[in-house]
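Lecture 7 notes: from sequence to structure.

We start with a single chain of 181 residues. Read the sequence below before looking at the structure.
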Amino acid sequence: MLRTEEQLKKMAALAGVVLLATAEALAQESPGPAARRIVVSIPDRKLAVVESGRVVKIFSTAVGTARTPSPTGSFRVVQRIPNPTWYTKGKVVGPGAANPLGTRWLGLSVKGYGIHGTNRPASIGHNASHGCIRMRNRDVEELFAMVAVGDAVELYGARTPELDRIFGQGSVESTGAVAGQ
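Now the structure, written as tokens:
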């Protein structure tokens, strides 16, 4: 029988012990049919939040360039950081308008990659990132409120029947759009 994190905390308190369960360990239990997933179509540059098989919300994104592509595969949200600090090659940019990560960071279980905001909103809808999934700040703030550590994240590099169902039948290839534009 699966137990919620709240039930586990109450059981631990009753037993007089400290609950030392990570979100990752809890996520390894079968979450059942009500599981929440983030589904990203890299060719469409779109992200969907799916709960119990139902699309809750679709957002536009920017994805990796041909030189720095977004990873594909199944991952998990492992970090949720509001107003992140950006670190790169001896440079540090704190929270604020100049931060390339925007106002929110959702770190993925693939090192160095995440879903985040941006200080370049005009890049949304393009292949423009270093591999991360980039969103408008207002959109990533909405997404941040919807998801939790442990939620599944699926990044697809090609269209599938499920992506057709989620994002519509017309694939990027059939619309004549060219990746990177």
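The longest helix spans residues 5-15. Keep this in mind for problem set 3.
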